[in-house]
Amino acid sequence: xxxxxxxxxxADADERxxxxxxxxxxxxxxPEDDPQGFQxxxxxxQAALASCRQRQAGPVRQxxxxxxxxxxxxxxxxxxxxxxxxxxxxxxxxxxxxxLDLGVFVQDAIVHAADGNAEALDRWLHGIEALWSLDAKAQxxxxxxxxxxxQAPPMPEACLETLLAFFGQDRxxxxxxxxxxHQLRRRMDLAWxxxxxxxxQLARALRLVERPQQRALDAVLKQLQQPFRWWQVLLxxxxxxxxxxxAALVQRLCGGHLGLLPASxxxxxxxxxxxxxxxxxxxxPRLALAGARVLATLLGSVVLGLFFGWVAGExxxxxxxxxxxxxxxxxxxxxxxxxxxxxWQLVRWQAGxxxxxxxxxxxxxxxxxxxxxxxxxxxxxxxxxxxxxxVLLLSGWLAAARALAGRQLPGNLRLWLWIGFVMASxxxxxxxxxDFQPAWFTGLFAxxxxxxxxxxxxxxxxxxxxxxxx
Length: 470
Hints:
This protein is mainly α. The protein has four domains: about 5-60 and about 70-75 and about 90-195, no CATH class; about 195-280, no CATH class; about 290-350, no CATH class; about 360-465, no CATH class. Helix content is about 65%, strand content about 0%. The radius of gyration is 36 Å and the shape is elongated. It starts with a helix and ends in a 9-residue tail after the last helix. Keywords: Membrane, Transmembrane, Transmembrane helix. This is J domain-containing protein.
């Protein structure tokens, strides 16, 4: 296909028609969406422009003075000397030195910068004779920088620095906001690296050399670039570690500053997965993913139950006992996992800072003594020994979590403390046949829990105590 046909033009189209067709095609083919299409379009534009100039030049050897227009930038100045006949002669196909189409130049500069080769971009800029004029260079630089701030096209940081340095926009007195320029540089560099054609470069930059790590990177970026759909995110959320992978990738890309990420990443997807990865809060994403996983587990247990029932049955009949046992095992597994998740969430809530709200803050501070009192009341009212021990064990664990929060213990001392805490259970002592008084042991354990809670409460509120006047 000829370059004129690629642009949708006839073979005798003039230069203005070529530039208009090129600008119209640029609105449909963006460098961040179709880099190869951009390269093909730019090559067709350059070939058509060269053919048109060759046809217009013909045998003419004299250069006509370029008319000054409002849309173009003239190169000649009033103080320029009159060229001699020797200097007036040019080559067979002269380049249009007299004028510079700012719109076409800006798009060409963005396309060259999107290639990622800073040295080639610098050579291309220095080879444009129309930019040898200081006035033309200043106007082109302002137009290019304005387009970059407006469009934020994807390009590597080195190419942006090359453009700014060529037009003198990297100096201190150019009027750029340093913070805005830094964010623009980061956002454009991220958009350039996140293009599908440069996924390998991104993986190497993030030091993801293993094939499973690269597949995980592709899966995360593919999910984030799609529009938000509930069925899709819930299906993806069956993988329990996907939310953590999204949070880790976002942290490595932008350090948690979501404004630096390009618009190709869906903001609703980002908000959902980052909220699902936050273990310190229970929100709609975490609850939705938990419900989807429970439902998938139950459906899987039903399918397995039918299979086991068919295997255990006779004459092609399904044994209902096998189905019932399998489904109950699935329910038990779901209940255990949910109870464990709720327990660890309660431990994190107690070990963390107190909520700012009034009643949640009071409950956060008084939960341990309330549990201790409930356990002692059950122990005193019930006739069976150790009836209130589960409540006391819960209160003791929460008190220890509050007391050990934020403390760096050497080695595996924290783990051994938790193991010793569980092994101190009087149930284990009773099974071992040890001779002790349950009431005394229960009282000592309740006192230890209240002591740990009181120490943590004193440590938390000590900075607000008034200083003693001497």
